[in-house]
Amino acid sequence: MLLTEADSRAMTAKLLGYVKADDAVVFLQSEDYSHLRFAANTFLTSGKRERTTARVTVWIDKRRGSSSTTDLSDAALKQAVEDAQTFARLAPVDVEYLPSLAQQTYRPGQGWVDATARVDLPARARQISEAIAQSEKAKIIGAGFHEVGLLAQATATAHGNFHYERGSIVGLAMTARTPDGSGSGYFARNHLDVARLDTGRIAREAIRRAVDSRGARMLPAGAYPVILEAQAVADLLDSGGMSFDARNADEGRSVFSLSAGATRVGTKLFDPRINIVSDPFRPELSKFTASDEGVPAQTTYLVRNGVLETLRYTRFWAQQKSRQPSGPLGLILEPSRPGVSVEEMIKTAKRALLVSRFFYIRTVDPRSASVTGLTRDGVWYVENGEIKYPVRNFRFNQSIVLMLGPGNVDAIGVPERVASSEGGTDPLLVPALRLNAFNFTSQSDAI
Amino acid sequence: MIRRDFLKLASTAVGSATLAPWVLEREAAAAAEVDAVKTAFAEAALTRAKVLGASYSDIRINRYRSETIFTRERQVQNVARNQDFGFGVRVLVNGTWGFAASSIVSADEIRRVTAVAVDIARANSMFQRKRVRLAPVEPAVASWKSAFEKDPFDVPLADKIQFLLALNETALKTNGVSFVNSSMRWVNEQRFLATSDGSRIEQYLIRGDPQLTVTAVNRQTNDFQTRRSLRGPQGLGYEYIEKYPWQAEATQAAEEAVEKLKAKSIEPGRYDLIIHPTNLWLTIHESAGHSTELDRALWWEANYAGTSFLTPDKTGKLRFGSPLVNIVADRVQATALATVAFDDDGVPAQRWYLVKDGVFVDWQTSRELAPLVGHKTSYGCTNGDSWASVPFARMPNVSLEPAAQDTSLAELVAGVEKGILIYGDGSWSIDQQRYNFQFGGQTFFEINNGKVGGMLRDVAYQSRTTDFWGACDGVGGRSTYELHGAFNDGKGEPGQVGVVSHGAPVARFRQINVLNTSVSMT
């Protein structure tokens, strides 16, 4: 059972009432989460968990301590507060201490849909059974994951701030493989509204890609023009390879650092059509509108028309640099002109590799935001406006900043809601991209 | 609420396992009440599941405690202690799994949640294609404690903070060091498993993960380099802090971070590699650990972590590596992170070969997986990372055996004309079938004509699993063997985090492809 706003007000008030410290922030998170996992065209596991966590952070003489518990009895909550206070008394002075927030003003979030909270188990089982039936009919082996997540969060401070919010999400990811292992396709989408999740389309797309990727040819490694589907773009941008953290940049340990303490803010690092925006309010994202500390969400252009406009600030670093602290992130990459469809990108390409997804992306060199990883579940060779044949997978080594740089971005698509295929449900709004060069450094036998 | 249920249910407990004394000693009074009745709670869940039609059921009532301390330079960034307590009920109805979990540990909630698990299983079973069959297991009643000496939760916080700040101070003494981050994380798992087969198992585990990262920044050239500590998580208590030479490690890390700024950038090409256990553990994990997971080979992980280039028909036939390569799986090695007495199926911990004399010979299995390759019993690889997670097949400790002869690092280096000696794990990535991988490291030293020379930078090695292990022509002896591991092995949907160790001696690999990872931003 999710905490209601009234429950949350009562529990945060109770927790703050136990506090005998100079300052405190309490954070409640309550989840109701269920899943159905399938593979080899049969159900594997299915379950539901309900959990509420209370976290308390206190400061005594600017010394900080924190503790959390899932036990919500009065005794356990008191103990959590006392633990945090004990740690605070033992800790050295927190030189980054800032008083907790006074009451903030929050724009209402739109991240909750009642219908998603009412997804019923037999209906879900039938829906996934139908996705498996589509696989069986196409002589495909299907694997996938359906999840429904309901989350309520509340934050309250000793200085009078309180914020409560709920969010819902439902998603399906599916991988389809040909029985001989010669083809594999993947498709995934999620939404806050169950009515907007087209499970039939997800199954059809995964199956189509598996069928179309059979008999892939091996091409030599090297730099190729590419068309990255929105999924592949989300995989790269969510990999952590390009962080917009201001403090790291100011401290000289970021791709956005320059010599002698300067940063690249204000420079034209990206293609002039590229905007990178944090906007949790965008209806297609509708993310939480407050950070754990209670900082309200804002709409912020990190990159505008290719120029790095600002970076993201913690409360402490914002105070040090006289900036506004950043609220929660809702990452959007969007073109400053209308985007073109993937079909149009293919139709107008002389030569390119069409990439559907990336896998196992890890930072190789933070100085250049360089990452490595692999293509997965569908690569095709495009020539003179047509998809010619499927291609075997590659490993790549690529700087994300240079990839989006002036001269390398050929075409930008229409942003759509996609979550990283490795990063859970957190959605981004990103378009497909056609790029002049992308560095594939070796071939992979994996299918 | 808890108190009333406690009294009511306590009187119904029959045949309960004896609770280990340390479980009660370490808990606050309210929590101890629940500990004292958890066998009774378990009976209630298992009985209810049976009445509702489950052919098998289990319940895990687990408490996880963790303590983390983060510091940078001369300040403490955060000190936190977390407690996560709850239960999860798993049932089989008509050969279909159902699972439900809650953080409210009371008799009423256990009854309600058990019914939810059965409802889920029953709803899904209407559409189930293949029924689950479990390999048999002997019921066990046992309590067990992992091989730690000093419980870190008994050590005063002030001592831990003082240790980390002293470590930072040591690193900051080296000219050219710009930043130091250090942390320690301690975890205590108090696990209780009861199964409808009759097992009642208590386990108490401790593990720790001290970390240090030194950063050297050259603001003139806009360059920065980091060096992380070579030691990572271990299944040890606070003795890990007291016995390992951490101050020397901080000094060395600081000097090497600064030295990396001036090190020679690698010329890409093929090199003989001498790989230290501080690096090789991760290559073992990714290439041998994950490829021998049977659920991957059966495409159960196809939608997330991936499948495997190994398939059941290759068992006992496929040449995985050179005849020097012996890779063993175990859940029994003392101080290793995946070591337990029993897995979450109630199967006792074991040790077995995955690769013997270079040939792939066996799999990691659970009770559900074992029958699918004709095994009569499970190797005991089932694990759930939380009471709220569905237990499934997770990696045991997977290690490269040292050579029978005690070959030293110097002897392996002596056989290299042009090569690189690699320490510490860095960037890592491998494809979804575990063929193609790329690994970085912390420090790299050139080897010329059998001698170790100066430091190199921007190094990553890229290879194919069977090519790489096939190129292994030298394995160090027992004196070079070290155990390393991870706190963060992700697998499954919903994602779960595994803890696992990998032992390795120093080893030599011939003519491996090496990349230069630096990219000019100008």
Summarize the model shown.
The complex is a heterodimer of chains A (447) and B (522). Chain A is of the alpha+beta class and 447 residues long.
Explain what you see.
The complex is a heterodimer of chains A (447) and B (522). Chain A is α+β, with helices and mostly antiparallel strands and 447 residues long. Chain A is built from 10 helices and 21 strands. In chain A, 21% of the residues lie in helices and 37% in strands. In chain A, the strands form 4 sheets. In chain A, strands 7, 12, 13, 14, 15, 16, 17, 18 and 21 form a 9-stranded mixed beta sheet that branches. In chain A, a hairpin with a 7-residue loop joins strand 19 and strand 20. Chain A is globular. Chain B has 11 helices and 25 strands. In chain B, strand 6 and strand 7 form a beta hairpin. Chains A and B meet through strand 1, strand 2, strand 3, helix 2 and helix 4 of A and helix 3, strand 2, strand 3, helix 4 and helix 5 of B. Strand 2 of chain A pairs parallel with strand 3 of chain B, so a sheet runs across the interface.
Summarize this structure as a short list of keywords or feature phrases.
heterodimer; A: 447 residues; alpha+beta; nine-stranded mixed sheet; six-stranded antiparallel sheet; 10 helices; 37% strand; B: 522 residues; ten-stranded mixed sheet; seven-stranded mixed sheet; disordered N terminus
